[in-house]
């Protein structure tokens, strides 16, 4: 590999910008525009070298294509590229900024995804969209019925019962038009539930079919949804040197604001991958609720932590520990070792 040549590629749908820099005597050799069909031909003519790109739409596809040509590819979060851009916002300046950001010794890169990981990610994104649509629909029906003096309890079951009672009640203020609209909304809710159940089955099948996901299922608080999402986000774990980096990448470490030797530690905030964080914390709550009087080391630690800081903070701490454990499983390829009350252990795969 040519260690002295570095390429920055500014991605787009049709028009790309490529910047080639020689690091021996810092100067820009090439900074030009390429059409989409010209990119691979241009990269084939280059010696194997480091290629930096922003992590954006299509970046993982291009990373796989360029890796197949022998290049070493790294993806950079756009927020880390912006400080290195000089002058106006142009494609040429962006491509040069990508190179400069990638050459920083402490730059943090985005893990590359395989086709399998992207399949799992796409499955979860479609599933989340249907869940959001279902929530929107339920909230809308609640609001519409309230305008006619009809109030229902929380949850789908209570809503459906109240809706069908309201539709059968001839004495309320619901007109024929409104009754038809509400009935159509309920039919749409049933269709969304069927679609979500179908996707849940696919997630379950994927968690059993993919070996790393099957290994992650052995960890307490990890089900099919969390296992597949963790594998999609972390891959084989090689992008992180230790488990704490993986948990920080997912947004499960406290934010810090320090100055003048004074450190202020805040909450985890809404950084990282929000849906995966929420699933991990829900799984941690389920572990806390079932810890009971178990005497293994992890359960004793969890009980003492709940007593000190409460269930919510303990759930976040347990989710952090779960990610670190998951990284160790993915990085080493070994099965999870579960400790029992008598001090013995079992390798679960």
TrEMBL record:
<dbReference type="InterPro" id="IPR002525">
    <property type="entry name" value="Transp_IS110-like_N"/>
</dbReference>
<dbReference type="InterPro" id="IPR047650">
    <property type="entry name" value="Transpos_IS110"/>
</dbReference>
<dbReference type="Pfam" id="PF01548">
    <property type="entry name" value="DEDD_Tnp_IS110"/>
</dbReference>
<dbReference type="GO" id="GO:0006313">
    <property type="term" value="P:DNA transposition"/>
</dbReference>
<dbReference type="GO" id="GO:0004803">
    <property type="term" value="F:transposase activity"/>
</dbReference>
<dbReference type="InterPro" id="IPR003346">
    <property type="entry name" value="Transposase_20"/>
</dbReference>
<feature type="domain" description="Transposase IS110-like N-terminal">
    <location>
        <begin position="7"/>
        <end position="148"/>
    </location>
</feature>
<dbReference type="Pfam" id="PF02371">
    <property type="entry name" value="Transposase_20"/>
</dbReference>
<keyword id="KW-0175">Coiled coil</keyword>
<protein>
    <submittedName>
        <fullName>IS110 family transposase</fullName>
    </submittedName>
</protein>
<dbReference type="GO" id="GO:0003677">
    <property type="term" value="F:DNA binding"/>
</dbReference>
<feature type="coiled-coil region">
    <location>
        <begin position="182"/>
        <end position="209"/>
    </location>
</feature>
<feature type="domain" description="Transposase IS116/IS110/IS902 C-terminal">
    <location>
        <begin position="213"/>
        <end position="290"/>
    </location>
</feature>
